[in-house]
Amino acid sequence: MSNSVKQTRREFIKVVGISGSGLILASFIPFNNVLANVGDDPKIFSPSVFLKIDSNGIVTIIFHRSEMGQGVKTALPMLVAEELEVDWEKIIIEQSDADKKYGNQSTGGSTSVRRNWEPLRVAGATAREMLILAAAKKWNTGTSNCYAENGFIINKSNGKKYSYGELVEDAAKLPVPTDVKLKDPKDFKLIGKRVHRVDTPDKIFGKAIFGIDVVVPGMFYAALSRCPTFGGKVKSFDAAKAKSMPGVVDVVEISNGVAVIADSTWRAFKGRDSLIIEWDLGPYANVTTEDIRNEMLKHVKDEGAELENRGNINTNIKDEIKLDAVYEVPFITHAPMEPMNCVAKYQNGKAEIWAPTQNAQDAQNETARVLGISKNDVTVHITLMGGGFGRRLVNDYVVEAAEISKACGKTIKLTWTREEDMKFGFFRPPSMSVLKGSVTKDGKPAKFYHHVIAPSISQMRFNKNLKAEESDIADGTIDLQYQIPNLKITGTLIPTHVPISWWRAVYNSQNPFAVESFIDEMAYAANKDPFIFRKEMLPSDSRLANVMNVAVEKAGWQVGKKLPAGKGMGIAIFSGYESYCAQIAEVTVNNNKLKIDRYVAVIDCGIVVNPDTVEAQLEGAIVFALSAALKSEITIQKGGVKESNFDDYPMLAYDETPVIETYYIKNTYKVGGVGEVGIGACAPALTNAIFAATGKRIRRLPVKLI
Question: What pTM does this model have?
């Protein structure tokens, strides 16, 4: 079946949006949406920056974050629509540009729904209450005699109703209330329902506009040659051969290298490859991964700066069973499917940017800084992006594009290759965890000590004089819910020349690997089932204990049951981002070959906005974390990254992916995060399962069985 829909020019503009000299995707209309016949100049009612309703009854919800596959372009508008009492199938969702009026637009840290849970609901409720008041005035009745439903205000007494469009002009004249009543969760009609993602149809039919798809009239294409070592720079270059190549229109030097501008991406790449550049390799030209690892090893016997202390880790306990271990994780990268790219136009002291960015306001600020203009003269359009995972919180590629545009005086599209994405990204830092603990002879935990040794992202990016106790390196190990009488967490910061930044769950992706693996070691030393050992350390009424109990039930974990040879089950739990997660991995190891059979994951993230999104996020987190645990390692060689593509930095393949079962706890607690919550428990559940199957402890990632 095919549908033919005629659109006026005005309707078309509402769908795609015109900005500057370029055509970009600005909103999405659901495929079964029927628009009102828009007039030439409809009146607009906009009591909030997140919402507008016109006199034709068209409701537009402004989406101010970044959609990178996690589903927030659906979840956030659901919050507005729920309180507004509007038909979900008859709304327009419009992507915003970067603007301080929206508050924080950074999309990371599992914050999108958490931070906007109340503001967006207030936006919808405010509009609803103003529309009710406008209708009540028309009917000369009290607001208690009116209610909102499905895009109408209805009079309880006689059943008469006004559409929202009919009330726009009157509502717009009313003062905006500062205190509106939000719905009780028991009255939700949309929140908690399985809602299809609004960005999916366009992706299915090839209509979605990702950053790499953006085309602006009159633009040229750019490729950049960067120094192969971190900290290096251009000493000199010869562009004669590049300039003689077909399609090449210019060669310019910017702060990060030498750019070739051409009439196609391919010609820009070929021109870039023909540049003759002499590099100043800088002070780190001979640094290797082992050099950085040795720097961490220097501190293994150090005490570290105190980050948390309960009881007395040095107390003498009779007949305690002591154990210690060192756990390690390497540098890893984000490797999104869509490499970095950006379209930049600099003209007459103003800049316009089209970018797949997780932090549009930072892109705006950084562009203004590098071009020497006011941020008010920088427009940043947020596009869809093919994966982010924290990489696109850093806008180096945006800055490069802006610099090239200014240097050559043209609108340019900068595209990175896959190899550049691997070699010149910002990496999750390595870390080394020194753990010591003990259990009593009757199997109870006595001591737990964790010394984290790692570079600090916050130190690198914000404050070079940061102390360990002020840094982020202990996320995922401080504030443990385990009731261990004597506990101490310490940290040591080490320097690194390698650019590091946020990677999905950041230190919560590495410290829980050490913590939950060592807790397992303590359980075996105590001669306790790993589930029982954990359960006895948690308050029985805690949400973390509850998700663990549910995971055990769903996975069919049987206390004390010995599995067949080569089979193993491992458990791990995690709390963070105001949510709680438990995971159980089931594996088979045969002749040192690992097969992951099954993962069971349970999450308590408070009120669930869209169950489909929560389940997809958990599944994606597990696949992402398993890729890291099994395959991912960035190695530094001669001052730069050795790996270059998916042949030497592989991802988890389809036939390697286990059956994944996901469950969520239904409750009315405050909304918690989801996107990064499934990462923390994944690796330790896997390695604990491998130990159960083989008796071999994996203390260094990626997993190597031989």
Answer: 0.92
